[in-house]
Amino acid sequence: MKKTYTLLIEGKHRDRLLDASKHDIRKYVKRERAKPLPEGVDFWDFDCKVGASEAAAAPVHFAEIMGAVDALVKDGADQFYVEITSKSGHRSARPIDATVSENAQEVL
Comparing C-alpha atoms, which of 66, 67, 48 is closest to residue 57? Predict the structure, then answer.
């Protein structure tokens, strides 16, 4: 999804347009996550960019999209650009922390 949301539309309140754009983003993510996973894939991951325009968009972690949008709107932006691309994700084992393994050995 690559989309520029405008927050200045005659006859519509800016806050309602912001809420509608956030709803649209969440709806897209929900639709992408509902697609069947390819074989050997654990989950759907997302590459995200947010900015005042397409040229100014910066990579953002998926969990920080709404915060980045709120920051742009708080700074007075009249529009914002969101790009979300789904990709396959593979879970990896967490590295074992040395202090945790030492504590586990003491308990034994």
Answer: 48
Rounded to the nearest angstrom, the gap between the alpha carbon of residue 84 and the centroid of all alpha carbons in its chain is 7
Helix (H) or strand (E) holding 80: strand 79-89
Task: Work out whether the CA dihedral 82, 88, 91, 95 comes out positive or negative.
Answer: negative
- The confidence score (pLDDT) of residue 69 equals 97
Q: Which residues of 28-50 are buried (b: 16+ CB within 10 A; e: fewer)?
A: bbeeeeeeeeeeeeeebebebbb
Would you call 17 exposed, middle or buried from its count of C-beta atoms within 10 A (0-12, 13-18, 19+)? middle
Write the burial class of residue 77 (CB in 10 Å: 0-12 exposed, 13-18 middle, 19+ buried).
middle
pLDDT (average), residues 55-61: 96
Give the model's confidence band at 91: pLDDT under 50 very low, under 70 low, under 90 confident, else very high.
confident
Q: What is the pLDDT of residues 34-53, one digit of tens each?
A: 999 999 899 999 999 999 99
